[in-house]
């Protein structure tokens, strides 16, 4: 059996005195996909920050492509192949669309031209500045900016948050296309549990930093009790 | 009329001298947001490097100016790596206290190493004397400063607005965390940008000696002017800094010529008025 792409083992992460994630373990194969579900404050974004390198774990191991990366600086994790699409997109407002992609671009299959082919509206706005984009365009740009680093693992933190339903469908279709056609692994945090469970093969439900469910997405999708108890059922039309 | 033209050219040349020194400060203070009082000390390092290389070692003028930029870049990089980088996230007061401390250390060091007397710089014959343009005599050195400053302005605008290096700096200043997650080593990028700002300080210092003179109090004498042009220009805007340099150059020279009793106060009164009406400076974005 080959080593997994990413292996998280007994991870503990916290701010100040409090522990936000405790005893979390999971693994993803190359090209695999994982949905992380849970309520606000369950520790989902904290997990992403710890994987991207912006929070140092209290204890536990993170192995990525055979390297121990728990203490590795964020830019080195990116160069090893972890692409991060943060919650809220964090587009560089003083940079044009093209510059947002250029500063991150590396040699590999994902080129700036390919991003423009996938998201034609970004190409039309290539000379616009980051703060002159709609929410959907910002999200496309955040995804494109992570893709041009040519990652082996893509971290998507609430990519559909705050998007109008039609735009959210567009972005969701692109994410599905990216994960299906590429040998890239994905970890997805999403309030839209249905979309996340359809997209990802595996799923974890976090509750106060502890994985209360961890298994195949199909099994978790069938576990209505757990979804209601730990994720909550989103009422249509309510913002996340 | 000829007097007016001479005052105007003198003011513009003084503005370019200010810009040669302030251009680098508009990178470290304006763009990177580091309250860098030590910039004036790095300009003095450049001034002494050029003056000593020309006066004592007989170096050609342009080679000495290039060496001044290189030495100031090295000193700036050492200061950044050893001291300043620890305070990027600290308050402005802490940054000012540390860097003003460096200014006083530099004054004491210059007095000890070179001595307290004024230093002059000899320029080569092709920069000496005047040329006649129409009815007015203009000093060759002032024309050289204006040409050099224009070339510097254009190069910096291209560097910051149209290169990957410039885009990375703008990104890192806007969101350091996200920049790191794009695979960019922000600490190294900041060290490079700081070295560049320091090189420009050294360059400006070396070129300004002929007009401004040089003694160990140089950093204190010109620190205020440098801070004024960068803040009146608008933090982070090279164009604004340039406009403010020209404005203050002309106002200062014209003021001292036309109203000698109060001339020195004109630039302070102007700075106060501009910042009262536009706290973000001429070209700065509103906060």
Report what the structure shows:
The complex is a heterodimer of chains A (240) and B (287). Chain A is of the alpha/beta class. Chain A has 10 helices and 10 strands. Chain A has helices at residues 44-52, 74-80, 97-102, 112-118, 120-124, 135-147, 165-181, 193-199, 217-222, 224-231; strands spanning 6-15, 18-28, 33-37, 59-64, 67-68, 82-85, 153-157, 185-189, 202-207, 210-216. In chain A, the strands form 2 sheets. In chain A, strands 6-7-8-3-9-10 form a 6-stranded mixed β-sheet, with helices on both faces. The longest helix of chain A has 17 residues, at 165-181. Chain A is globular and about 45 Å long. By secondary structure, chain B is an all-alpha fold. In chain B, a hairpin with a 2-residue loop joins β1 and β2. Chain B is globular. Chain B: This is Branched-chain amino acid ABC transporter permease.
Structural class of chain A: alpha/beta
In whole angstroms, the N-to-C terminal distance of chain A is 40 Å
Total number of strands of chain B: 2
**Unreliable residue runs of chain B:** none
The best one-word shape of chain B is: globular
Using only C-alpha atoms, the radius of gyration of chain B works out to: 19 Å
Looking at how many chains there are and whether they match, the oligomeric state comes to heterodimer
3D shape of chain A: globular
Q: What does the average pLDDT of chain B come to?
A: 93
Task: Tell me the domain tally of chain B.
Answer: 1
Spatial arrangement of strands, main beta sheet of chain B: 1-2
Low-confidence runs of chain A: 235-240
Largest beta-sheet characterization of chain A: 6 strands, mixed
Overall helicity of chain A: 25-40%
**Largest chain-chain contact?**
A-B, 24 and 18 residues
């Amino acid at each position: 059996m080959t080593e997994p792409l990413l292996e998280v083992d007994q991870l503990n992460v916290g701010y100040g005195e409090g522990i936000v994630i405790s005893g979390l373990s999971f693994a993803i194969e190359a090209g695999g996909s994982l949905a992380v579900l849970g309520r606000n404050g369950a520790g989902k974004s904290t997990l992403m920050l710890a994987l991207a390198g912006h929070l140092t774990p209290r204890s536990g191991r993170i192995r990525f492509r055979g390297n121990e990366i728990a203490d590795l600086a964020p830019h080195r994790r990116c160069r090893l192949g972890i692409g991060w699409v943060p919650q809220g997109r964090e587009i560089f407002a003083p940079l044009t669309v093209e510059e947002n992609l250029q500063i991150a671009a590396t040699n590999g299959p994902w080129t700036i031209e390919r991003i423009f082919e996938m998201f034609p509206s970004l190409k039309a706005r290539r000379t616009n500045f980051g703060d002159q984009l709609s929410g959907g365009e910002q999200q496309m740009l955040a995804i494109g900016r992570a893709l041009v680093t040519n990652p082996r693992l893509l971290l998507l933190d609430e990519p559909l948050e705050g998007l109008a339903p039609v735009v959210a469908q567009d972005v969701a279709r692109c994410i599905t296309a990216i994960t299906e056609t590429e040998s890239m692994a994905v970890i997805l945090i999403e309030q839209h549990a249905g979309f996340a469970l359809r997209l990802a093969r595996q799923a974890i439900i976090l509750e106060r930093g502890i994985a209360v469910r961890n298994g195949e997405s199909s099994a978790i999708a069938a576990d209505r009790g757990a979804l209601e108890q730990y994720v909550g059922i989103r009422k249509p039309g309510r913002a996340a | 009329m000829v007097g007016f033209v001479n005052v105007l050219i003198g003011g513009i040349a003084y503005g370019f001298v200010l810009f040669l020194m302030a251009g680098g400060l508009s990178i470290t203070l304006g763009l990177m947001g580091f309250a860098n009082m030590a910039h004036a000390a790095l300009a003095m390092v450049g001034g002494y490097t050029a003056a000593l290389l020309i006066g004592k070692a007989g170096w050609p003028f342009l080679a000495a100016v290039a060496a001044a930029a290189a030495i100031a870049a090295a000193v700036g990089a050492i200061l950044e790596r050893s001291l300043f980088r620890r305070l990027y996230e600290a308050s402005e007061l802490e940054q000012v206290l540390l860097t003003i401390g460096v200014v006083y250390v530099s004054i004491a060091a210059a007095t000890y190493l070179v001595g307290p007397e004024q230093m002059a710089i000899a320029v080569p014959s092709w920069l000496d004397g005047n040329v006649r343009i129409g009815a007015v005599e203009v000093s060759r050195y002032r024309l050289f400063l204006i040409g050099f400053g224009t070339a510097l302005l254009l190069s910096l605008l291209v560097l910051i607005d149209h290169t990957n290096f410039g885009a990375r700096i703008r990104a890192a200043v806007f969101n350091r965390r996200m920049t790191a997650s794009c695979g960019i080593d922000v600490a190294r990028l900041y060290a490079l940008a700081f070295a560049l700002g320091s090189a420009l300080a050294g360059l400006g210092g070396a070129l300004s000696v002929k007009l401004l003179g040089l003694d160990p109090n140089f950093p204190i004498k010109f620190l205020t002017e440098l801070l004024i042009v960068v803040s009146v220009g608008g933090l982070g805007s090279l164009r604004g800094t340039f406009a403010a340099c020209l404005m203050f150059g002309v106002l200062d020279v014209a003021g001292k010529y036309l109203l000698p009793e109060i001339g020195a106060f004109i630039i302070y009164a102007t700075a106060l008025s501009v910042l009262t009406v536009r706290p973000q400076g001429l070209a700065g974005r509103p906060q």
